Amino acid sequence: MRAAHTVEQVRAAEEVELARLPEGALMQRAATGxxxxxxxxxxxxxxxxxxxxxxxxxxxxxxxxxxxxxxxxGAAVEAILLSExxxxxxxxxxxxxxxxxxxxxTATRPDVVVDGIVGIGGRPGLRPNAVEALGLFRDVPVVxxxxxxxxxxxxxxxxxxxxxxxxxVTFGTHKPCHLVDPAASACGVVDLVGLDxxxxxxxxxALQAADVAVxxxxxxxxxxxxxxxxxxVRAGSPEYTGAAVLTTSGASCGLAxxxxxxxxxxxxxxxxxxxxxxxxxxxxxxxxxxxGGDDVDVLLAACLADGVPVVADAAALPHVExxxxxxxxxxxxxxxxSMLGTERDAVEADQLGHVRRAAAHFGCTVLLKGRHxxxxxxxxxxRVTTSGVPWLAVAGAGDVLAGVIGALLASGLEPFDAASxxxxxxxxxxxxxxxxxxxxPEGVAxxxxxxxxxxxxxxxx
Length: 461
Ligand SMILES: NC(=O)C1=CN([C@@H]2O[C@H](COP(=O)(O)OP(=O)(O)OC[C@H]3O[C@@H](n4cnc5c(N)ncnc54)[C@H](OP(=O)(O)O)[C@@H]3O)[C@@H](O)[C@H]2O)[C@@H](O)CC1
Ligand SMILES: Nc1ncnc2c1ncn2[C@@H]1O[C@H](COP(=O)(O)OP(=O)(O)O)[C@@H](O)[C@H]1O
Ligand SMILES: [K+]
Fold this sequence. Notes:
Blueprint: E1 2-4, H1 7-20, H2 25-42, E2 49-54, H3 58-72, E3 76-81, H4 88-96, E4 100-102, E5 112-116, H5 128-134, E6 142-145, E7 167-171, H6 176-179, E8 189-193, E9 204-206, H7 209-215, H8 225-228, E10 230-234, H9 241-251, E11 258-261, H10 266-272, E12 285-288, H11 296-305, E13 310-312, E14 327-329, H12 333-340, H13 344-349, H14 351-362, E15 365-368, E16 374-376, E17 382-384, H15 397-410, H16 415-434, H17 441-456
Parallel strand pairs: 2-3, 2-5, 3-4, 5-6, 6-7, 7-8, 9-17, 10-11, 10-12, 12-13, 13-14, 14-15
Antiparallel strand pairs: 1-9, 15-16, 16-17
Helix pairs in contact: 2-3, 3-4, 9-10, 9-15, 9-17, 12-14, 15-16, 15-17, 16-17
The chain binds ligand NPW, adenosine-5'-diphosphate (ADP) and potassium ion.
Residues 332, 369-371, 373, 388-390, 392-393, 395-399, 401, 426 line the site of adenosine-5'-diphosphate.
Subunit structure: Homotetramer.
Catalytic activity: (6S)-NADHX + ADP = AMP + phosphate + NADH + H(+); (6R)-NADHX = (6S)-NADHX; (6R)-NADPHX = (6S)-NADPHX; (6S)-NADPHX + ADP = AMP + phosphate + NADPH + H(+)
Keywords: ATP-binding, Isomerase, Lyase, Metal-binding, Multifunctional enzyme, NAD, NADP, Nucleotide-binding, Potassium
C-alpha cells in the first residue's frame, strides 16, 4: 500500500523523531537520499553541473546539504538564493565544498535544476523571483525536493504558478499532492526516502499489486457458481446496445460465478458471451445505468429495492438520492459536477474535495474517474488508482469498469474495496491489453482475467 499523510500528520511525527535524534540528523538523511536520487538521474556526479533554487525554509536546507554532498563528489554546484534568509548551516556546508552563490544573470547552464524553493510549509503559488529563476533553463530536468513548489500539498490543487518536476524526491511518507491530480501530474516520478517516522493511519492510500492480490476474491475448492456470486446488469437501450455488451463484458471478467442480463440487448449480449443468462432472477449485486434509456430511473429503483449492493453509472447517476450505503457511484468529472450542482472545471481543479463531498452527501462510495481515479467512502477514507494508462481514455471503458466492480460486489467485497480493486484491475488490464499501445474497451475487459491470474499465481494454497 502506498500511503499519503497530511502536512499536520507529518509535522507531528517529525517532532517526535527530531526530539529523539541528534540535531540535524533527520535533514542529513533527507539530503543524502536527495543527493543519491540526483546522482542516479544524472548518471554520475563528477563534472556535472547542478543549479539549486533555494527558498527560506528547511526545504531549501535539504537542497543546500544535498548540493554540498554532490559538490564533495566533484559536481559544480551553484545556488540562487530566493530569500534574504536561507538555511545558514546548509549554506555554510555548500560554500565549504566550493559551491557558489549566483543570481539569474550569472548562473551557468546546469544539467539539473533542484527545486528547494518551498516544501510542506508552502502556500500554493510562487513568488515572481522564483518564477523568473525557473524560467532561466526551461529544457533542463527539474528535481523537486519533497514536493514541486507551489502545489497544494494537502489538497492536490494547483492554484497559480508551480514547479513541474521530472522527479520528486519526498521524505518519510507520500503527501496527498503526490497521488491526487492535478498536482500529482506535476510531480513526475516520485521517489520516497524513508525516515522511520511513526505515522498514523493514512487518510489516502494507493493500492499496489500485492494489496490487490490479497483483496481479490478467489473461489474456494467447493465453490459453485451461486456461492461465487451472481451479478445482474441492467444496461443498454434500443439506441445504445453496445453499452450493454461492454458492461456485461466487464461483469464477465470471471470474478463472479454468473452474469444475468436484463434489458433490450439480450441478443447482442449473448452473441458475445454465451454464458450470460438473459432472464430475471436472484443476484448478489446489480450494475445499472450505462447506455440507459428513459426507464433508467425505474430500473435504478428496482435494483435498490432488491437490497443488494448496486453500481450506478452514467444515465443512472442523475436519479441517485442520498441514503443507500451499499451503492457505488462511478461518475467522471462532468457527471459529478452535475450531481453536485457545480461546473466540470471546479471538479477537475479540486478532485479530492469533490469526491469526499459527494461520498458524504450521498452516504455511499463514490469513484471519480480520471487519470488518477479517486475512490472515497462516507467515513472519509480515500484510495487512488495509479495503475491506468492514458490509452484507457476511450469511449466505453467506463462501462467495462462498472461491470468489473459489479462482479466484485457480487463476490462479496465491500463497496469501497470492490470499487478500488475494480479500478486497479481495470487500469492494469489496459496496460496488459495495449502492451504500451492503444486499447479497445472489450480488450480491457478480456485482459482483466490475465491480470488476476498474474496476481494470484504466487498465492495458491
Ligand atoms: N517533515 C519532515 O519529516 C522533514 C522535513 N524536511 C524538509 O523540511 C521542509 C519543510 O520545511 P519548513 O517547515 O521550513 O517549510 P518550507 O516549505 O521549507 O518553507 C516554508 C517557508 O517558505 C516561505 N513560503 C511559503 N510559501 C511560499 C511560496 N509559495 N513561495 C515562496 N516562499 C514561500 C515562507 O516563508 P516566508 O518567506 O513567507 O517568510 C515559509 O515559512 C520539508 O518540505 C522537507 O523538505 C527534511 O529536511 C527532514 C524531514
Ligand atoms: N489520462 C488517463 N489516464 C488513465 N486513465 C484514464 C485517463 N483518462 C480517463 N481514464 C479512464 O478511462 C475510463 C473512461 O471512462 P468514462 O469517462 O466513463 O468513458 P465512457 O463513459 O465512454 O465509458 C475511466 O476508467 C477513467 O478513469
Ligand atoms: K520543493
